[in-house]
Write a structure and sequence with these properties.
140 residues, mainly alpha
Length: 140
């Protein structure tokens, strides 16, 4: 129905309507079964199920634009997880945390957390992070 009404599944979308159906499969099948009867009550139950799920997904999306929430619940935990799994080094994690806090960094910002490093070394660190070469990753 969404596609028929113009929902573009190939355009970069934020809302994923299919996520609605994955949360509670039993409720999904129950609501779908009621809707399949074809009566108004079943259609209403299905509509409420879908709208409730979309509301939940919209709330999740809203949290992603709340930068303090994003930092606390997604970005910092992702950096910590990457550090624990040796995906990034301690130096990388420090730079990433700084980037998360400031949202935009320059060599001079990184120099403040690594005062002994030369600017050329800092540039290499940043290039490596931007290029995707992390701790333990081999040169290609």
């Amino acid at each position: 129905m969404l596609v028929k009404q113009g929902f573009n599944v190939h355009f970069s979308r934020v809302l994923n309507p299919t996520a609605v159906f994955c949360g509670d499969r039993n409720l999904y099948y129950k609501s779908l079964s009621r809707a399949d009867r074809g009566d108004d009550e079943g259609f209403l139950e299905w509509s409420l199920y879908v709208l409730s799920g979309l509301k939940t997904e919209i709330k999740k999306t809203d949290k992603l634009v709340d930068y303090p929430y994003l930092i606390k619940h997604i970005l910092h935990p992702a950096i910590n997880y990457s550090l624990e799994k040796n995906i990034v080094s301690e130096s990388d994690a420090k730079i990433l945390r700084l980037a998360v806090e400031k949202q935009e960094i320059a060599n001079a910002d990184v120099k403040k957390i690594f005062p002994a490093k030369h600017i050329a070394g800092i540039s290499r660190l940043l290039r490596r992070l931007l290029g995707g070469k992390y701790a333990g990753e081999k040169e290609r």
